[in-house]
Amino acid sequence: MDTSMTLLLLLLSVVVSASGDKLFPQFYDRSCPKAQQIVKNVVQNAVAKETRMAASLLRLHFHDCFVKGCDGSLLLDNSSTIVSEKGSVPNRNSARGFEVIDRIKDALEKECPQTVSCADILALAARDSTVLAGGLGWEVPLGRRDSLGASIQGSNRGIPAPNNTLPTIITKFKLVGLDLVDLVALSGSHTIGNARCTSFRQRLYNQTGNGQADATLDASYAAQLRTRCPKSGGDNNLFFLDLVSPKTFDNYYFKNIVAGKGLLSSDQVLFTRSGATMALVRRYAENGAAFAKQFAVSMVKMGNISPLTGTKGEIRKNCRKVNS
Ligand code: HEM
Ligand SMILES: *[C@@H]1O[C@H](CO)[C@@H](O)[C@H](O)[C@H]1NC(C)=O
Ligand SMILES: *[C@@H]1O[C@H](CO)[C@@H](O)[C@H](O)[C@H]1NC(C)=O
Ligand SMILES: *[C@@H]1O[C@H](CO)[C@@H](O)[C@H](O)[C@H]1NC(C)=O
C-alpha cells in the first residue's frame, strides 16, 4: 500500500468514527438546517404561556440522561412491550412538559421527516429553557439517536431521590460519569421550578425519626413551609425551589443554601455534609458567573452520557412510541 492510500484510509476511518460515535453541534446543519430554530420557537411559545415550563423541560433532559443514557427513553409511553419510565417514583405526578416535546417533534417531522431525534430535542429544549429563564447558553452537541426501550427500574434506581444521603447522591452521579463539581453545578437547576410538599415534608416534621424538624433547615422558613405542607394531606401543593427568585436562572439557589433555606434535603446536604461540596456551594453563591460557566460545561457533560449513535437505536417519528 502506498502512503497516499494509507493516508486516505486513515482519513476515512477518522471521518467514519467522527460521524459514528461523537456528538457535535453541527450534526443537523445539512440534514435539517432549521432544526435548532424550530425547537427554540416552540419552547419560547410554551414558556411564554407558562414560565415554569422552562424548569420542567430542563428536568426532562436530566431524567432522560440518568437512565440508559440520553436516548429519549423517558418519553416512551406504556405499550404492550414497554413499561414507561413516566410511572417511576421520581417521574410519577411530577415529570411534565411531554406535550411540548410532542409539539416540537411534530414541527420537526413536517420540516424534515425522521431526521431529528427525540433525545436531541430534549438536549436542545434544556438549553433553550435555561436561556429563556435568564441563564447563559451553550452549544449543544447533537447526533443522539432514540432508544427502542425504556427502563422503569433504571429510573427508580438511577435518579437521586430528595431524601437520599449525600454519599448516595454522589454515587448515583459517579455511576454516570459525573463528579462533585458536576453535582453541585447541576443542582443549581433548582434555581427555577417547583417541588411538591411530598418531596420535602419529612424535613418539616420528622427528619431523623425523632419527631424533630431537620436542624439544618432555617426555622422561620420551616414554619412558613409548614403552613402549606401539613403533616398529612396537601401532597401535591407546590413550592418554589428557589424562594428568592423562583423564575430566574441565577445563583440564588446557592445563596439560599448558605442561609439554611435549601428546599430539598438533597439541596441542603450539599452544604452541610461535605467540605468539598460546601466549598463549591460557597463559590457559586459568591460568583454567579463561575456558576453559569460551570453549569454549561456540566450540562454538556451530562448530555454526553452514553448516547446511541451511528446505526444504533432509531429516529422516532413519535417520541411516545418506537417506530413499527
Ligand atoms: C442532585 C440530585 C437531584 C435531586 C435529588 C433532585 C430532586 C428533585 C425533586 C424532588 C424535584 C421536585 C419534584 C416534585 O416534587 O414534583 C426536582 C425538581 C426539579 N429538578 Fe431536580 N433533583 C436533582 C438534580 C437535578 C438536576 C441535575 C437537574 C437538571 C440538570 C434538575 C432539575 C430540576 C428542575 C428544573 C426541577 C423543577 C421542575 C418543575 O418545576 O417542573 N434536578 N428535583
Ligand atoms: C404503565 O403500566 C403499568 C402497569 O402495567 C402501570 O402501573 C403504570 O402506572 C403505567 N404507567 C403510566 C405512565 O401510565
Ligand atoms: C425516602 O422517601 C421515600 C419516598 O417517600 C420513602 O419510601 C423512603 O422510605 C425515604 N427514605 C428515607 C431514608 O427516609
Ligand atoms: C418519626 O419517625 C419514626 C420512624 O419512622 C416513627 O417511629 C415516629 O413515630 C415518628 N414520629 C412522629 C412524631 O411522627
TrEMBL record:
Disulphides: C32-C112, C65-C70, C118-C319, C197-C229
Binding site for heme b: H190
One GO molecular-function entry: metal ion binding
Residue numbers binding Ca(2+) 1: D64, V67, G69, D71, S73, E85
EC number: 1.11.1.7
Record's cofactor remark: Binds 2 calcium ions per subunit.
Function: Removal of H(2)O(2), oxidation of toxic reductants, biosynthesis and degradation of lignin, suberization, auxin catabolism, response to environmental stresses such as wounding, pathogen attack and oxidative stress.
Record protein name field: Peroxidase
Organism: Vanilla planifolia (Vanilla)
Lineage, uppermost ranks: Eukaryota, Viridiplantae, Streptophyta, Embryophyta, Tracheophyta
